[in-house]
What we know:
The protein has helices at residues 22-35, 49-57, 64-68, 84-98, 117-133, 221-308, and strands at 11-16, 40-44, 72-76, 102-106, 137-143, 165-174, 177-187, 197-202, 205-208, 213-214, 217-218. By secondary structure, it is an alpha/beta fold.
Amino acid sequence: xxxxxxxxxxxxxxxxxxxxxxxxxxxxxxxxxxxxxxxxxxxxxxxxxxxxxxxxxxxxxxxxxxxxxxxxxxxxxxxxxxxxxxxxxxxxxxxxxxxxxxxxxxxxxxxxxxxxxxxxxxxxxxxxxxxxxxxxxxxxxxxxxxxxxxxxxxxxxxxxxxxxxxxxxxxxxxxxxxxxxxxxxxxxxxxxxxxxxxxxxxxxxxxxxxxxxxxxxxxxxxxxxxxxxxxxxxxxxxxxxxxxxxxxxxxxxxxxxxxxxxxxxxxxxxxxxxxxxxxxxxxxxxxxxxxxxxxxxxxxxxxxxxxxx
Length: 309
C-alpha cells in the first residue's frame, strides 16, 4: 500500500480509535527493524514494557528475544515524570544511549497531558525534527476520538501535518460485526494506495487481506467469507459441469471417429470396386476386339482358298 515502504529517517504517524491495533502495528515495525539488526527503542506510555511484549506475543510478534540480546530497548514512559519538555529530553537521551536507528512512541498523544496543548505541539514538532536530523525512523501512534474520523478534525497535537506518512486504522461494521480497516491518508514522496484494506490479527501475525469487492462494495470478515464460500461452490459446480460436458463431447467425438473410419473404409471399398470394374470392362473390350480381328483373319483366309480353286 506504500509502494514498497516509507523512507529511512522519515516520520510515520499511526492513528485510530482504541482497539484498532495501533500498538500491534508499531510492534510489528519494531520487530522488523530488530530482525534487520537495527537498534530500536520502544517508548510505551500506556503499558509497561513487559505487558507490551506479552500482549504482542499473542499475534506472533516476539520482542522478548531482542530485549535479551540488547537490540531492542523497552521504555515505560509512565516512570518518567515531568513536563512534555522533560519527556522529550529524557527520550532523546535514552535514544542516544541506546544508539537507536528506529524509535517508537506509543502513543505520542500522551504528551498533551504533560502540559498545555501549545507546548506539547512544540515538543512533538521538535521530536520529529530531531529524529530526522539524527536519521532515526520514527513511528508514533496517536489516539483519535471514537466519534471523529481523521477527516473530521486534526489529530492530537496536530502532528498529522508534520508526519511524512499517515496511516489510519478504524473499524468497519458489516453484517453485525466489526472488522479492522487500514488506509493511507498521505505519504510524502511516494505512491500509495487509496483503498481501505482489512487488517487481520491472528496467531500467525499481522496481515493485510487482498481487496475483495462485490457489487461495488468492499467486503470484509464474515460477509466476505460467506461470499467467497458461495463463489467457491459455484466454481466447483461449474467445474463439474464442464468436466461432464467434456466427457460427453469426448464420447460423441469417439462415435464420430468410428463413423468416419467406417465411411472411409466404405469409400476405399467403392474405389477398389470401381477400379476393378474399369479393368474388367477394359479387358472385356480388348478380348472382344481381338476376337473380331481373329475372326476377320480367319474369314479372309477362307475366301483366299476359295479363290484359288
